[in-house]
Amino acid sequence: MNRINKIVWNLFRLGFGLLSVALVFTISCIDSDIKGKQNMNNPKHTNRLINETSPYLLQHAHNPVDWYPWGEEALNLAMEKDMPILLSIGYSACHWCHVMEHESFENEEIARLMNENFICIKVDREERPDLDEIYMNAVQAMTGSGGWPMTVFLTPDLKPFYAGTYFPPRDMPGRPGLPSILNAVSNLYRENREKVSAYSQQVHSVIRNLSDFQKSDEPLSFDLLDNAYNYAVKFFDPENGGFGGAPKFPQSGILSFLMRHWKRTNDQKALDIVGKSLTAMARGGVYDQIGGGFHRYSVDAKWLIPHFEKMLYDNALLTGVYLEYYQITKKALYLDIATETLDYLLRDMYNPGGGFYSTQDADTDGQEGLTYAWDIDEVRQILGDDARIFTAYYGMTEQGNFEHGTNVLHIPISPEKTAEKLGIGIDKLNSVIQKSRQKLFNEREKRPQPGKDDKIITAWNGLMISSMTKAYQVTGDQRYINSAIETANFILTKVSENGKLLRTHRHGESKLNAYADDYAFMIGALLDLYESDFDERWITETIRLNSVLLDQYWDEQNGGFFYTSDDHEKLIARTKSASDSPIPSANSKAAMNLLRLSRFTGDQDLAMKAEGIFRLFTDQMENSPNFSSDMICALDFFLSKGREIVITGNTKLEKTPKFIGAIHQHYTPNSILIFFDPEIHDQKLAETMPILESRTSPSKKTLAYICEDYTCKTPINELQSFITALSE
To answer: What architecture (CATH level 2) is domain 2-209?
Structure first.
C-alpha cells in the first residue's frame, strides 16, 4: 500500500495537475447493452475490429475511432510513429463500457482527437485477461481503485503513464471530460517526454513488484484456516446474509470454505452462515425467480435489486455451493435452486455440440432489467384468480420496487408464512406458484431478450463441467453428465491445438494461447468427471494437461504458476496471482489439483509443489483471507486427514451403484474416489493409481476400501456399514 501511495503522490508531483481529478472516478461495470451494431446496414464507418470474433470488439467495429485489436500491426505502428497508445479494455456485459461508446466513441469529433493523437487499441478483457490484469494493476496503482471501462495511456513500449476508467464526453464539475484528457495527455507526451518516461518507469516497477512474492518459512497450520473463519464471521451480515454491505456479491469461495470449516470443526455457526446466505440469495431478486440462474450482484445489501447480467462463472460456482449444502442438509430448497440454475444454463447458455456461452446481458433494448421486471397489473391479467397468491408470494406492490413502478420478484417471507397469511395450505400455495411461474415464463419468452456473449471460454467451461458432474452425482440426472462429457470433449478437441489448450471459441474459430486458469479449471473438471463416470481417459487427460501446465507455466525459481506460458507473447510483466475474486485464481485451483492428483497417482512431488504454492502465498492467506478463500480450501485439503475411497466390483452387481451413490450423496470434501470394475477397466490402471494394486482381481462382491495415506482399513461389503464409515 505504501508503494501505491507513493506513486499517486508522484503523479501530482510530476505535474499532471488537475487531470488527476478524473482518476478518482471509477466504475465497476457489470450490466450491458449489446446493440448489434455489427448488423447495421450500410454503416458509415468500419474499422479493423470487423474481422474479430469477440462480440465486445464487434460492437465497436463501426465506431469512427480507428480501432485496432491488440497485435503486431498496432504495436509496430506506435513504435514507427512514436505515438502514445490509447488502450481501452472492457467486456460485453459492461453497461458503462457501452455508455462510453455511445457518448464518446461514436462521437466523430472525439474520434478525430483519438485518431490524430493516439494509436487506439480495443481489448476484450475476457479474451485477454493477461492484458487486463497488468493494466488494471496500473490503474489501481495510479488511482487507488479500478473498474471498467478501463482507459490506459501507454508509451510505445507499452508502459502506462496515465489511466482511469469511465471518462464523460465533456467537462463536468471537478472532473474533466475525455476531450480535455486527450488534449492534455497528448501535449504532455509531446512536450514533457522525460516526465512521461520517468513516471511510466515507476508505474512499470510497481506492476512488476506486485508478482514478487516471498516464500514463508513458517509452518503451515490450521491457524490460517481459523483466521480465515474469523474474518468471514466479522464481515458476515447477520440480518441479510452474505458479506459486507451494498453492493453485495455472492462470495461463493467463502461459502465453500465455511462448509469445510464446519466439516473439520463441527462448528454449527459456520454452517448457519452458509444457510442464511444461500437462503437469502435464493429468495432475493438476485436470483431469477421465473427463469432460474443468478444475476451478478445486488445493488443493495438485501439481495433485492440486481444488476441483471448473468455470468457463466457465477452460476457454475454457486450451483456447486448449493449442491454441497444440500448434501449436508438434505433440504429440498437448495437442490431446487441448483437444478433450476443448471436447467437455465442448459436451456439458454449451451452451445449445441458442447460448450457454454459466457454472458447474458443486463439490458434489453437499452433498458436495464426490461426482460425481468413485472408490472403488477400485467401479472393480474396473465394469472387471473391466481394473481392474488402469486403477488403476495413474490412481494409485488402497486408502486413497485424497481424503475417505472415495476417489480423485481423476490420472496420477502417464508412460503409457510405466506400460506398462513393467505389462509391456504402450503400444498395449494406451491401448486399455484409452480403453475404461475410457468405461465409468466412463457409470457416472458415473448419479450425482447437480453443480448448474449456467445464466445466459449475454456476456463469458465471447466467450472461448468465441475458443476454438471456434481449435479449428476447428487441427482443421477443423465442430462448433467452428458453435457459435462460433451463439453469436455469439445474443449479437448475443438478448443485445443497441438496438444495445448486455447482460450476461446466462437463461430467455429478457436484462438489465443490458454492461460493458467484455463488449464487449472479444466484439470479440476476432468478429475471431477472421472469421479462421476470413472472413465480412465479423464485421468489420462488430466495427467497430460497437468504436465503441460507444469512445463509451460511453473516458476522453477520461486514456485507458483505464472498466468502466461513460456511461449506467450512477451508483455511488460509476467503476472502471478492468487487472488480468489470473483473466481478462483489459477494458483489456488492448481494447488487443489496437485493435491488430488498426488492422491490418485501417489506422486508426492505434486503435493510438494502444492506446498510450495501455499508457502509463496502465506502472507496473502493471512492478511487477505477474504480474497484467498479457494487457496485456503486447498490448504484445508492439505492439512486435513484426507481419505482415498476405493470401490471395486462389477457394475452389474446390485450393491455397486448403491455404494457409489452413497459416496455421491455425502459431503466428503477431502476425499478422492476411485472405482474399478475388472470387466471394464484396464488392469494397467493400477500402474497409474498404485492404490489399486492387489485390488483389481475379479470378485463376485462389491468391496469398499476406506484408506488414509494409502493405508486401508478392512474392506466393507455391507452398504449400511459403509455409510456409517463415511460419516465418521
So the answer is: 3-Layer(aba) Sandwich (3.40)
